[in-house]
Automatic annotation (TrEMBL):
Protein name: Bifunctional acetate--CoA ligase family protein/GNAT family N-acetyltransferase
Pfam families in the cross-refs: Acetyltransf_1, ATP-grasp_5, CoA_binding_2, Ligase_CoA_2, Succ_CoA_lig
UniProt keyword list: ATP-binding, Ligase, Nucleotide-binding
Occurrences of domain N-acetyltransferase (ranges): 738-892
Family: In the N-terminal section; belongs to the acetate CoA ligase alpha subunit family.
SMART domains hit by this protein: CoA_binding
UniProt GO MF annotations: acetate-CoA ligase (ADP-forming) activity; acyltransferase activity, transferring groups other than amino-acyl groups; ATP binding
PROSITE patterns found in the cross-reference section: GNAT
Keyword Protease: no
The UniProt record lists the keyword Chloroplast: no
Length: 892
């Protein structure tokens, strides 16, 4: 049984065995028995306890083997020392799923951790999938099942809640009942011996009863599978995470700047952004944003317009909005004139729009009506404070009716509790979320805006790279081998600059000098002025040992500086291996930037970019990215820094070449992708101005443990990069050559052009219908794929020097590598060349490599070419149906 089928059985069981039930009031076993028998669950419950014959009028079985019927799910609440035996018995009885409520594993120290590892091994050997241990259990309101020891039943609804903390689950449950928040699934996953976040995300993605997924997260183990699942699901169902546990370890001092510039929590932010996940800081925010995303359209930006009948709440909302990075929507001259016609002369004439304290239904509705037409408004917040003449119910109904006609994001803050309760109900009934105060509403709007921005980032078409990129990977491999052979784990500056130059990151002319005379000769060759820096693999922060001299303008100055630098380094770092100095042509750039990487134990390499120089750790104007980067992701990293304003041109200053800087980040990401042995890297300062970019200093620290031989490529990344190993060129029967390669996000325009070259029949064969024009949304679905879950091989030709996509075949796999779907299309001008056969073989080869168990393809009965291609490859065909289903079982 695969993970999906297992979870479907877990959350929709027909029969449950409760192992460890008890008559003792207050015990977990007693609560489990009371909850499962006392609800509306219409399945069969089998209590198991060898010391009792019956409980609560229900027969109790001594063992799992004694149960006469098939059991879908075992819920285990025995002492931890007995759990392994119960899991073994589950396997022997054919019970494939278990929820282990029992504590006493990872949370109890070394002995508990050892028992946890044994539990994992035992479950795998027995073929039992586990939720837990150390969990509360789960609740399924739609089927009336409370398979937990929580005291109350959750309300039914469309939210799925996943939590590592059982104690938090009970608090959230109480809160949700008070505020009438309902759930499709309420799941406590505990220590995650087996089933993890990614498994539940993939399952909940297919559940029609779930609209949003909420997660309380303390830690994340399988980051790669989490980000893959989240990126796949987030486009259709919002995922909102409350991550706690801010670590101090990640901020500890390290051997390069990168290690001290960021901690674990900042990396989580970057990972969630890359996954398209919304991150919140409180439980209230967790449910507020989920409610708002389910009720309202996502804002297109963060420009908020505030309508209020009291100045104070409007100012509070404004302050909170600006502090969170939001913007106030400007009032156009046209809007001001319209509002002058419907509001008293004393209205605020600015945003927030103060309609004044005595405003009734007409000022509110007319103001909202005109504001809904403003193109520069992304969201509207309506604030109401009850006055003696305020009819909250009437205003709420009117605003709700009007808001229902718009696709703008509209939120409300009706302040006054019981005085505005009827207005709150009227708005909520029309799909307008209402908050108790402006701060909550503004926070929710900004969370929605950030979530929408993250989703936009996932679907943004990156521009193509400015030039062909051919790194000298093999040269760098030999360089690192020499460093390791010398017994070192850090490159000296000369080696580091050679290393980055092989990936296109250029430094000023420089050379190694072992003596003062050699330094003077090198300097004269470059031309004055020059810079000089101590060279030592043991001294990474050169300024700490007075190891830098700038603007040296003569041979004599160079020789004096050489002696001073080497003398200070020897005095301050007596054990350091001194290799002389680096003499470098003095280059002055307007801006100093920082570019670095760090190997995180959970997330692999992360990239840091921002303002550089000696103050980099003081100002910490840094953004974090997750490789691989494309041009769009590189652009976002740059834009998130404060120094971006200067780089883009500020108050008449010349802007830098932003595309060149994006391309540099793109190349840097490939460098750390190709070399997993890099533990930390700094390029600081990275000099930039309108005339170009140069790396003025570079540090590279290697992991002391060498990378394992024959390891899978890119195993250290949590986002699988473009699989370059699948590229190849083939010659067709007509002697034309075609390049086969995986599809890229940058291929959107090529794919659109290929679509336009398809005849109506080819369209019908591929899509089962005629499509008038292919949309951006369809194109990003086809070009922006997760290489872990899908591979699309395109055939590319050149005609008169122009690249053309002439065909594409793809396999779309399930998350468990059980099955995959095959599809193929060749545009009409290039049919009849044998491309269909070539592309089919290419993707079937990938499917075999990935060990998919079977592949299926659906095609129309009159698509004879497809039938011929699949029949040659031993697919079996369904009969008597259209579309035809063809299936191929992979032999491994």
């Amino acid at each position: 049984m695969n993970t999906f089928e297992s979870l479907r059985t877990v959350f929709n069981p027909r029969s449950i065995a409760l192992v460890g039930v008890s008559n003792r009031p207050g015990s977990v076993g007693n609560a489990l028995l009371r909850n499962t028998l006392g609800g509306d669950f219409d399945g069969v419950v089998y209590p198991v306890n060898p010391k009792h014959r019956s409980m609560r009028g229900t027969k109790v079985y001594p063992t799992l083997r004694a149960i006469p019927d098939r059991v879908d799910l075992a819920i285990i609440a025995t002492p931890s020392t007995h759990v392994l035996g119960v899991i073994e018995e589950c396997g022997q009885c054919g019970i494939g799923n278990a929820v282990v409520i029992t504590a006493g594993f990872l949370e109890t120290g070394r002995a508990g951790a050892a028992l946890f590892r044994k539990l994992v091994r035992t479950a795998r050997q027995a073929g039992v999938r586990i939720i837990g241990p150390n969990c509360l259990g789960f609740i399924r309101p739609p089927i009336g099942l409370n398979a937990s020891f929580a005291a109350r039943m959750a309300l039914p609804g469309k939210l799925a809640f996943i939590s590592q903390s059982g104690a938090l689950c009970t608090a959230v449950l109480d809160w949700s009942i008070r505020d009438r928040v309902g759930f499709s699934h309420f799941i406590s996953i505990g220590s995650m011996a087996d089933i993890g976040y990614h498994d539940l995300l993939d399952y909940l993605a297919t559940d029609p009863g779930t609209s949003s997924i909420l997660i309380y997260m303390e830690s994340l183990r399988d980051a790669k599978r989490f980000i893959s699942a989240a990126r796949s699901i987030g486009r259709t169902k919002p995922i909102i995470v409350l991550k706690v546990g801010r670590s101090s370890e990640g901020a500890a001092a390290a051997s390069s700047h990168t290690g001290s510039l960021t901690g674990d929590d900042a990396i989580y932010d970057a990972v969630f952004e890359r996954a398209g996940v919304a991150r919140v800081n409180t439980i209230k925010e967790l449910f507020n944003i989920s409610q708002s995303l389910s009720m309202q359209p996502r804002p297109r930006g963060n420009r908020l317009l505030i309508i209020t009948n009291a100045g104070g709440p409007g100012v509070i909302a404004t302050d909170m909005h600006i502090a969170q990075g939001g913007r106030l929507a400007p009032l156009s001259a046209t809007l001001r004139e319209k509002l002058n016609q419907v509001l008293p002369a004393a209205w605020s004439h600015s945003n927030p729009i103060d309609v004044l304290g005595d405003a009734g239904v007409t000022p509110y509705t007319e103001t909202l009506r005109h504001c809904l037409d403003e193109p520069n408004v992304d969201g509207i917040l309506v604030i109401l404070t009850p006055q003696a003449m305020t009819n909250a119910d009437e205003i709420g109904r009117a605003l709700g009716d009007l808001a229902a006609t718009s696709n703008k994001t509209i939120l409300a803050a009706f302040m006054g509790a019981a005085d505005v309760a009827s207005g709150t109900r009227a708005l909520t009934a029309k799909g307008i979320p209402v908050y108790d105060n402006p701060e909550e509403a503004v926070t929710c709007f900004n969370l929605m805006a950030r979530y929408a921005r993250n989703q936009e980032l996932l679907t943004e078409t990156p521009e193509s790279v400015p030039a062909e990129f051919k790194p000298k990977t093999a040269v760098n491999q030999r360089l690192l081998a020499r460093v390791r052979d010398a017994g070192r784990h850090a490159l000296n500056e000369n080696e580091a600059k050679q290393f980055i130059a092989n990936y296109g990151l250029i430094s000023p002319p420089h050379a190694h000098a072992a003596t003062a005379a050699d330094a003077a000769r090198r300097a004269a060759g470059f031309g004055f002025p020059v810079a000089m820096k101590i060279m030592s693999p043991d001294i990474l922060h050169k300024t700490d040992v007075n190891g830098v001299a700038l603007n040296l303008r003569s041979k004599r100055a160079v020789m004096l500086a050489f002696r001073q630098i080497t003398r200070d380094a020897a005095r301050l770092r007596p054990k350091a291996q001194l290799q002389g100095v680096i003499v470098e042509k003095m280059v002055t750039k307007k801006y100093e930037l920082f570019l670095g990487s760090k190997m995180d134990p959970v997330f692999g390499p992360v990239i840091l970019f921002g303002a550089g120089g000696v103050g980099v750790e003081v100002f910490k104007d840094i953004s974090i990215g997750i490789p691989p980067l494309n041009m769009a992701l590189a652009k976002r990293m740059i834009e998130k820094t404060k120094i971006h304003t200067l780089l883009a041109g500020y108050r008449g200053m010349a802007a830098i070449d932003m595309r060149s800087l994006q391309f540099l980040l793109y190349r840097f990401s490939y460098m750390i992708m190709d070399f997993p042995e890099i533990a930390e890297m700094d390029i600081n300062p990275l000099g930039v101005d309108a005339d170009g970019i140069v790396a003025l200093d570079a540090k590279i620290v290697l992991d002391p443990a060498p990378p394992p031989r024959h390891a899978a490529p890119y195993r250290h990344l949590i986002v699988t990069p473009y699989p370059r190993e699948l590229e190849r060129t083939v010659r067709l029967a007509n002697r034309k050559t075609v390049r086969l390669r995986p599809i890229r996000p940058e291929d959107e325009q090529l794919e659109a052009e290929m679509f336009r070259a398809m005849s109506p029949q080819t369209q019908r064969f591929r899509f089962f219908e005629l499509i008038k024009d292919i949309s951006h949304e369809m194109l990003i679905r086809y070009t922006q794929i997760d290489y872990d879950r899908e591979v699309a091989i395109v055939a590319e030709m050149r005609e008169r020097g122009v690249r053309k996509m002439v065909g594409v075949a793809r396999v779309i796999g399930d998350p468990y590598h059980e099955t995959s779907e095959f599809a193929i299309v060749v545009a009409d001008p290039w049919q009849g060349m044998g491309l269909g056969n070539v592309l089919t073989d290419a993707v079937l080869s990938v499917a075999r490599q990935r060990k998919y168990r079977s592949i299926y393809a659906d095609f129309l009965g009159d698509n004879h070419a497809m039938h011929h291609i699949l029949r040659k490859r031993k697919f079996t065909f369904s009969t008597g149906q259209n579309p035809v289903r063809a299936t191929w079982v992979c032999a491994h």
